[in-house]
Amino acid sequence: MWPVERGQLWEVGPHRLLCEDFHQGDPESYKRIMDIQPDMIYCDPPWDPGNAKSFRTKAGVPDPSLDFRQFMRLLISYWKNCKGYVVYEMGAKWNEEVQGMIEDSGGWILNEWPIYYFRRGNNPGRPCILVRCTWNPKLQKAGPNYPEHEPPVDEEGEGLNDDLTPRWAINNFSQKGDVVADYCTGKGCTAWSADLADRVFVGTELHPRRLANAIAKLVYSGKGHTARCPETTTVRG
Question: Residue 75 is part of a domain; what is its CATH number?
Answer without folding.
Answer: 3.40.50.150
